[in-house]
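Pasting as-is:
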Amino acid sequence: MNDTIFIIAGEPSADMHGSHLVKELKALSPNLKISGIGSKQMSQAGVKIFADLTKHAVIGFIEVLKHLKIYKQIFEMTIRKVKETKPKAIILIDFPGFNLRLAKRIKKECPQVKIIYYISPQIWAWGKKRVHLIRDIVDHMIVIFEFEKKLYERNNVPVTFVGHPLTDTVKNTQSKSLLLKKLSYTEKDLIIGLLPGSREVEIKRILPVMLKSAQLFAQKMPQTKFILIKSPNIKDELINELLHKYPVENIQVIKENNYNFLSVCFFAWVCSGTATLETAILGIPMAIVYKTSLFTWCISKFLIKLPFIGLINVVAEEKIVEEFIQFQATPKNITECSLRFFQQNRKSRDQLILQLTAAKLKLGSSGANKNAARTIASLIQ
């Protein structure tokens, strides 16, 4: 055993959270050596990356099967490296389909390696049977939602609630007037933000619906402006191809300072997932839009145990923003919902913003990654 830990981050969001965690760990233990699975952000933070799964990050059962070979190769490589290196601990970030299997194998073959899970699998959505597996194979859970802490405590799983890392990273750092000037928009312009996701498969399914919705909405309210918030993981060519296929007037693509530009929006159409929390933290009213393959949708309907899927609604424990999922995700439905919001009085809009603020408070105070790093440091001493 040595002063090395592994961090496993298989998705773009996990790579981001992993990079912030590494910076805090390095601040506490400058000599700590960190290797793992990740991408550019973790590499820039000082992690020795031996595999990158973010380029293969997908959603859905069929989509995963298409990438099964590469997953298996990297899985076995990781097991070999754990046996060779004998790290003090392995930190698993989200990505449960891969990470829970990895934890089970490591617990069996390398029981001396401490297994710490940061950002819990969504066992509250997919049924709670997984909690028994987690109790057997994970030494400590570090969770970002307070309701997760209560769930694990009820099932005798060692757990620490650290708050949500987005409360540290989601910030507007420029004035609205300056941002509008950069966009060549004015204070009077009503702007809708499009956040179609961070995975290629999501862009291909969701962005066409959003662009067609923008076309329809512009027919009803021609003065509306649009901004498309592009994830850095998505190639420009794909966005340009879809914009050419579904042209929208008065739309601009945002490739950097995404939080700043999102903050000027009057309303947003948001892919289900972490982006709903980011939008809520900035206090921007939204509608949630999501589509997946028919097969994945049918399986998910059978497995998901929640009345809604939008993370912001899950955190709020009530449906505070509308969800347009699968067959309900149509330009007509999205446009009608958005028009109702635009036509509401100021009091109704302010009420929704208050609900978003209340949900934001449930994410905890700032310092999640610092709290997580301190927890990890104490566990590996």
